[in-house]
Amino acid sequence: MIGGSTAQIELDRLQPWAKRAPAITVAERKARIARAQELTDALGADALLVNAGASLRYFSGLPWGQSERLVAMLLVPGREPIMICPHFEIGTLEADLAIPVDIRSWQEDEDPAALVIDVLAQVGAKTLAIDPELPFHFAERIRQGGAALVDAMPVVKQCRMVKSAAELALMQQAKDMTLSIHHAAARILAPGIRQSEVVHFIDAAHRKLGASGSSFCIVQFGEATAYPHGLPGDRALEEGQLVLIDTGCTIQGYHSDITRTYGFGEVSQDIRDIWDIEKEAQQAAFDAVRPGETCESVDAAARAVLVKAGLGPDYALPGLPHRTGHGIGLSIHEPAYLVRGDRTLLEPGMCFSNEPMIVVPQRFGVRLEDHMFVTPTGAQWFTQPQASIDRLAD
């Protein structure tokens, strides 16, 4: 399970992923838009402006990130979506869009905020709900043009937090792919292998399965595992060290994000003891998930395990320095969050990471990260948690 192979052998074993999840349908995207329009009206706004990024992809299928040029979609209850974009991008935009829209474009020497103001006047919208990811300078120019602005976070959050069956299937594929690569990465480990070699292998392995490479990759050996997002440098692996690998990919925009921590050779008993506490805390968080409970109650369940073991409390170290988990979907981190203070009620279809990392400062850290979704009766794992510190799976 750990060691005994090579990168080339493992890459040769991998084949393009056979069980591919279907794309989100046009009908589902139209239903999302209708829901957003209803929520916008309930918010007291006349229209919703969705900026380029994950939310725009959610509604329109457009896989564009944010840039200095305004690309956004205006949703007005009872009307076809209106897309604001640079004129020279119309051809690419039409090729990428998954739904019909009314395109309004601006030239390079024109102010796109002025175009938004003109369109708002044409549709009779005075109060505009603004995507929280819209850059401030665009929002301020729209406000100066006469629109009253409100925060669209309640609309975006309510739409995107609860995943459909189609979204769950895309996330399942991404997570299954990444988990299989975790197993392959563990097999290529050998004394002297460098972190960068493992990172390159994981990226190539994701590509071999059909993803566009790793969306991110953290590989840490020994003391570097004590830092949640690692340390700079390119360490070589030694016998008796702890290995922490955190990586993921995207499938049609939907993320995986899985962490495994295990020993390379024999590790000390105190590391094993902390690993066992980490696994117990992860299971406690899973067991605490029930519809109607709060997000913060899941975090509390994990921390209770740590406190009982003499760790913490709160964010004190040795202990858990960050939240227990985050929402995941088209963004790798998105609402809601498994952390004290987030009183969002759990609903079937919500998806979360479960990663109550334990850090022993300047020595080592253990993070086991899997993902789960809320069901009508509790929680269900996307991926089976790690079996033990010596084995990734039973």
TrEMBL record:
Positions of the Peptidase M24 domain: 170-375
A Gene Ontology BP annotation from the UniProt entry: proteolysis
Keyword Metal-binding on entry: yes
Coiled coil: none
Domain Creatinase N-terminal: 32-162
GO molecular-function terms, A-Z: metal ion binding; metallopeptidase activity
Keywords assigned by UniProt, alphabetized: Hydrolase, Metal-binding, Metalloprotease, Protease
InterPro entries: Creatin/AminoP/Spt16_N, Creatinase/aminopeptidase-like, Creatinase_N, Pept_M24, Peptidase_M24B, Peptidase_M24B_aminopep-P_CS
Organism domain of life: Bacteria
The family this protein is said to belong to: Belongs to the peptidase M24B family.
Name of protein: X-Pro dipeptidase
Species this chain originates from: Novosphingobium barchaimii LL02
